[in-house]
Design a protein that fits this description.
Blueprint: H1 14-30, E1 41-44, E2 47-48, E3 54-55, H2 60-71, E4 74-78, E5 103-106, E6 118-121, H3 123-126, H4 142-157, H5 160-179, E7 185-191, E8 194-199, H6 212-221, E9 227-229, E10 235-238, H7 246-265
Parallel strand pairs: 1-4, 4-5
Antiparallel strand pairs: 2-3, 5-6, 7-8, 8-10, 9-10
The structure holds pyridoxal-5'-phosphate.
């Protein structure tokens, strides 16, 4: 289970959700009658992306790290979406002190558009699988690798991480203020420039409103690229390029406002 405060069986408090999720995991892993055999590895996104832009509540990743150490499980962090300054620091797991993955999965912004993915593997694990045992036709493509190195220089030189953190926080504030006018918004959440708007039924039940695909079609018609996410899917996901500015954010919020009105009117 992943802690999802808005829909947590233990209530909406992020810290309590994280604590209960960890306790549940600990119980299942320790109790021989739970039916769980400790798995070899745990794979988790520090900010769940397609699952609905759900940042891991504070303390969850550190707790998971401890559970992995205690039960001999490998901690694999998937930062394909959240990595390379999208949420501010280079990796989203850095929001929590003392969390280090055993395997880090990277892609997308690694090379800023050119096709490249990578697994960064702790030496003691990587030894079991030397580089020559894993290969593919386009592995180590030189142009993509050069693009990745250049992208790292740009992220640092242009301070895109700090910028993502600042713009993301103003994006969240603006979206939250617009959301107050729309009964179909259950939550606006995110970290840096990884932002989600969760749609709910307007009857106050909090039940998911599975209209994220409609929302993304309406957005594209207005010139805004978002994509549908969430379990139902009922989350409008925003992952703009890190070079956007305040004006772009303002336009995105304006278009979102219009889309929310249109979605509600069509119900
Ligand atoms: C979080 C996450 N992990 C893994 C992948 C898969 O990456 P790739 O398309 O490079 O295989 C994606 C793709 O969208 C993703 O969002």
């Amino acid at each position: 289970p992943y802690p999802y405060p808005l829909r947590s069986p233990w209530g909406p408090d992020p810290k309590e959700t994280a604590d209960h999720t960890l306790r549940f995991l600990q119980t299942c892993l320790s109790d021989p009658a739970s039916g769980w055999r400790p798995p070899a590895a745990v794979v988790v996104e520090p900010v769940q992306g397609n699952g609905g832009v759900i940042p891991a509540p504070e303390g969850f990743l550190a707790g998971l790290r401890s559970l992995c150490d205690e039960h001999g499980m490998v901690l694999i962090l998937d930062e394909v979406m959240s990595g390379f300054h999208r949420t501010g620091p280079r990796f989203a797991y850095e929001h929590e002190p003392d969390v280090r993955p055993d395997i880090l999965v990277l892609g997308k912004s690694l090379s800023s558009g050119l096709p490249l993915a990578a697994c960064v593997i702790r030496h003691s694990i990587g030894e079991a699988s030397p580089p020559t045992t894993e290969t593919s036709t386009y592995a180590g493509n030189l142009v993509a690798c050069a693009a990745a190195l250049a992208a790292q220089d740009v992220y640092e030189a242009e301070g895109l991480g700090e910028r993502a953190a600042e713009l993301g926080s103003s994006f969240l504030d603006r979206l939250r203020s617009v959301a107050q006018r729309h009964a179909i918004v259950g939550e606006v959440r995110g970290r840096g420039l990884m932002v989600g708007v969760e749609l709910v039924m307007p009857d106050g039940s909090g039940d998911p409103l599975p209209r994220a695909a409609d929302a993304s079609r309406m957005a594209i018609q207005r010139g805004l690229l978002v994509y549908p996410g969430g379990h139902w899917p009922n989350v409008i996901a925003y992952l703009p390029p890190l070079i956007v500015d305040e004006r772009d954010v303002a336009v995105a919020v304006e278009i979102t406002d219009a889309i929310l009105s249109e979605l509600a009117a069509a119900l």
